[in-house]
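Hello,

I think I submitted the D-xylulose job twice by accident. Can you confirm which output corresponds to this input? Input:
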Amino acid sequence: MPLYLGLDASTQGLTLQAIDVESDIARLVFEHTTSFDRDLDSYGTRHGILVSDDPRVAVAPPLMWADGLDRAMAAFAKSRFDVSRVAAISGSAQQHGSVYLNGTAAAALEALDPARPLVDQIGGIFARATSPVWLDTSTSEECREITGTLGGATEVARLTGSRAFERFTAAQIRRFFKHDADAYRPTARVHLVSSFLASLLVGRDAPLEPGDASGTNLMDLARGSWAPRALAATAPDLAAKLPPIVPSFTIAGALAPYWRARYGFSAAQVAVWSGDNPCSLIGTGLVDEGRIAISLGTSDTLFGLMGAPRIDMTGTGHVFGAPTGAFMGLTVFSNGSLTRERVRDAYGLDWPGFSAALASTPPGNDEALLLPWFVPEITPNVPAPAVRRRRLDAADGPRNVRAVVEAQMMAMANHSTWMDVTIHTIHATGGASANREILQIMADVFGADVYQFSVGNSACLGAALRAWHADARSRGREIPWLTIVRDIAEPTAASRVTPVPERVALYANLRRHYADFERDELALLAHAE
Ligand code: ADP
Ligand code: XUL
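Support: Only one job matched these inputs. Its output is below.
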C-alpha cells in the first residue's frame, strides 16, 4: 500500500506526517516535529522568529526551514517504515513569508550532493539572508503606496482577495526593493516559504498554486494568475522573479536524487505545496460549501470553502484559493481565548465556574450587550482596547461571562455574512472547543450543528491528503474530495451540539441589536480620534 507524506513548515516548527491509504481510506501512521527554537537552537530564534530591535520587524532564516526539512526526512527514514513506499509528498507552509534567491540557486539545487547535509550546500543561494514572515508589521507605508497606485483598498481587495496588509508579500517585497535595491535587483527568484521548500525537494524551481499565491496581494484572484497591475505597483521586474502559478494538484516533479540517495526514498512525486490555511481547509474536512471551521485558539478564526470569489467589502476578511480549485474565506478575531480568560479571571472563576455562569444565565442575556474589545481588534478594525457595555452591570460576573461569549459568537456570525454561505455545520477546534457550554451558544447563534473537532496538525494532514489526491489525479483517477477526507478529517457524530430553534430566532434578532451597537460605538471611536 502507498504512503503519502505531508510536511508543514509552520512558524515554530517543521512537522512531517505519513498517511497509509488502503481501499481509499487514509490513516495517520507517523508524525514527527522539529521545533526551531529547541532542536535547531543554533539559528537563535524565539518562537521561530529572530529577535529584532524594531518590534514591527519579524524575520526568520530560510536556511533553518531547509534544515528542518532535512531533519524531518531523516527522522522518517529512521522510522520503522519502508520509505520507498512513499508515492507522493506535498507540503504546507506559513503564508506570506518570502525567500529571496540569487542567480546561483538553480545550479546549486540541481547539484545537491547526498553525502553532505543540505544546509552545507545551500548557504550561498540567498539574495537575502533572512525572510520576512507573517508577524511582520513594518510595511504600513508600502501598503499605503500600493493601495494608492491600485486605486483604493476596495479595488485591491476586488483584484487580489484582500486589501493590502502589512504581512502580505507585496508590501514586504516593496519594502525590500526600497531599502535594499542593490540586493533586490540581482534577486533571481522570490519564492514563498511553500515554493522554496518544494524547490528543495525537487531540486529545481517549483511553482506556486493559487492558495498560497493569494496571500501575496499580487494574484488576480478570479483568474488565478499574477496581476500585472499589482506587480507594477510593487517593484520593478517582479514578473520575472516570481514562480509561475499552477493548479493546486500539479506535480512539481520527482523527489531529487539527494533525497533518494541519502535516505532511500524512491522517485516519489512532489505535488506543489500550499499555505497552511488552504491546507487546513482540507485537513479539517471543509471540502464543500456550507461547512465552516471555527478555531477558538489564542485568537478566534473562522474559515470555510466558497464556491465563488466573493470579497469582504469591509476589508477585514481574506479570500484565498482553495486546494479544490474553489475559494476560501478567512476572518480573524483577535479577542479570542485570552479575552475569555480575562473575563473569567476578573470574576475569580475557573473554567468549570465559567461554564456554570453560562448555564445559570438566560440565552440572550435579557438583551445585555458587551463589545469585547479588551485588546485591539482586527474584525472589526478597533486600533485600541475599547470595552463597552449596554444594559450590563460590570459587577455582575455571570452576565458578563455570558455577554462576552455571546458577543464573540454574534460578531463572528455577523462578520462572516460576506461569504454568502448558508452555514449548516461548524467544526469547532482550538483549546476552547473543549467547552460545550460555549459551543451551545455557537450552535444557537449560527443556527448550525457544531461538532467538536480535535485536530492534531490539520495543515500537515491536509498536505498529506493533497499529496494523495494529486498522485491519483496524475495517474488518471480523480478521487472526490469527500472521499479523500472521509473518516480521517471528519468529526465524530457523538460530539454534536445541536441548536435550539427558539434561541436561534432570539439570536437572529439580537444579532441586529449587536450590529447597531457595534456600528454606533465604532462611529464614536472614529469621531474621538
Ligand atoms: P493556540 O491558538 O495558541 O494554539 P489553543 O488552541 O491551544 O491555542 O487554545 C488555548 C486556549 O484554550 C487557552 O488560552 C484557554 O483560554 C482555552 N481553553 C482551554 N480549556 C478551556 C475551557 N474548558 N473553556 C474555555 N477555554 C478553554
Ligand atoms: C494568515 C496568516 C497566518 C499564517 C501563519 O493570513 O497570516 O495564518 O498563514 O499561520
